[in-house]
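haha ok so turns out i had the wrong file open the whole time. this is the CORRECT one, sorry everyone. sequence first:
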Amino acid sequence: MHASLTPGTAIDHLAARLHRLPASCGPVRLIGVDGHAGSGKSTFAGRLARALGGAPVLRLDDIASHDELFDWTGRLQAQVIEPLSHGGTAHYAPYDWHARRFRDPVPLPPAPVILVEGVGAGRRALRPYLAFLLWMDLPPAESWARGRSRDGEEQREFWDGWVAAEEKHFAADPSRPFADGLVRQCAEGYELRPGPAGTLETDHVITLREGPSAMW
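then structure:
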């Protein structure tokens, strides 16, 4: 049965559910937002973070680098996971993709919920620390086309290398089969469906709209 909800209620409901989850990394509920490059992870994570009351968002673009597109697990664990798991403040050095170097470390204090957004957020090494995993359910070819269009011709060579690296990564370490929820962008917002992991407590579609109503 579907019930009409007032604007924003659906995404607020999701946020409330995430707040109720048991902590997964020290006192923190780490929420992964994974998907192919160009699938809309950053935009969705930003909206969810606002619904969570301004939850911090750790963007994996800050952890990866040109030389380590996917080989950043050790850096993430040392700079972020280990401190948070002990209730301490993490300090990580964001990567500057234009200057091709890491900047000075920035703090990431423990919070009730922290979103980890980026390709590979649901990787095998990170899943034990996640309270919930969301997958942006857009096919790879469509995602990559959107990403290429967004970044322009000057990034064509980078994208050629990225696509090959991403295909290799997900072939060896897929995230989607372990997702708790599948997020699909639609004309009026987003649809959230149960993921392959089967932990989402609904058989219905949650439409996260920006229009006059939302549906559960």
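The domain at 4-215 is CATH 3.40.50.300 (Rossmann fold).
again sry for the mixup
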